[in-house]
Write a structure and sequence with these properties.
The chain contains no helices and seven strands. By secondary structure, the protein is an all-beta fold. The two termini are about 20 Å apart.
Length: about 80
């Protein structure tokens, strides 16, 4: 599954991942390979990315996530 985390200033992360946990406005949720298509708003919190190298965390102040065809795009 491919993930892009983009802010107004820079691209925080681009790469292949196993899972991502996101701070949704209705609560945290996780996206895995094969997840159904969705668009959701995000609140301030941590994005936790699990890839082959381990886990990485990114602090965001909110944003939007789109999941479609095993591609996850986060605009924070």
């Amino acid at each position: 599954m491919h993930l892009d985390i983009i802010t107004a200033d820079k691209n925080l992360y681009t790469g292949e991942i196993e899972a991502v946990t996101l701070p949704g406005t209705a609560g945290k949720f996780q996206v895995l390979k094969g997840h159904a298509a969705l668009i959701s708003s995000l609140e301030k919190g941590k994005i936790v990315v699990k890839d082959k190298g381990g886990k990485q965390e990114f602090e965001v102040n909110g944003g939007i996530v789109e999941v479609l065809n095993n591609k996850v795009a986060v605009l924070a």
